[in-house]
Amino acid sequence: MTSNAFRPKPTTLFWLLAPATALFVVAVVAPVLISIGFSTLQWSGGRNMKFIGIGNLVHLVQDSVFWKSFGNNLFITIFCLIFQIGIGFLVASILQNKTVKFGELHRTVIFFPVVMSAVVIGFMWSMIYNREYGLLNTFLRGLGLSSLIHPYLDDPKTIMFFVSIPIVWQYIGLFMMLFLTGYQGIDTSIIEVSIIDGAGPVRRAWYVTLPLLSETFKVAVILCIAGNMKIFDHIFIMTGGGPGRSSNVMAMYAYNQAFEMFQIGYGSAVSVGIMILSLTLILASRLLIGRNQT
Fold first, then answer.
1. Which residues contact 41 (CB under 8 A, 6 or more apart)?
2. DSSP one-letter code for 179
3. Is the peptide bond prior to 243 cis by the omega test (within 30 degrees of 0)?
4. Phi, psi of 185, deg, nearest 5
5. Is the separation of the CB atoms in 176 and 91 below 8 Å?
6. 3 state DSSP class of 200
7. What share of the chain has pLDDT > 70, as a percent?
């Protein structure tokens, strides 16, 4: 009787959910549907539109530049899965210990890059990487290691590694906070029992902490894949996709096709391809993680 007394009416729930649902439809669902519609057109802007069905998607499947861009996205995603989640988990494991001094300060400092604009991060790391006056090369010269100076953003062979580092650095704090939240849901008595049983830090992390944080890891993997499959700002600011197309990513390719080449229909098809590949990777990761847990 008590629960029924406080249960809201269906109409009340509808009106409470209506504003958020309307915003989601306008900001997410409508643009997706519009992009899918545009992807069926041969359109360069203006009134001249030609319906070509799946012609753009067929061309996309055969487009080597798109698949090269997808490969770059995949590199960034795997790099961030290892280091963003790995370092975030390691830092959270240290800071969740109440005996760590200035824990709140450490959390604030590590999380601060997350709230900064990706454009600012891109400019900042471009200056760090600068060959002549960059902080990194200045530091190497000061140590007498001038032989290690490298054209970080101009070498096609290593550029993906160096453009991935700022992305990892910016979002470590996000995953740190995610794992800290997960730690709060762990019953401390379980940890205490494992300590009494003689489990050291490594065994405790592997056999106790990791299984209890499995759901948090699933969320972290999904966020990491979704975020890095649509990465754009950092690459646009630091390299513009160059040198050549060596650091081009899918979102930048869609931007170039739609707003520089004025192939709006094909640019929309690229965005649809990004969505399909992102969902495929997320689904594959869910199936893989679920199978490993059984």
1. 49, 50, 51, 52, 56, 264, 265, 268
2. H
3. yes
4. -90, 0
5. yes
6. coil
7. 96
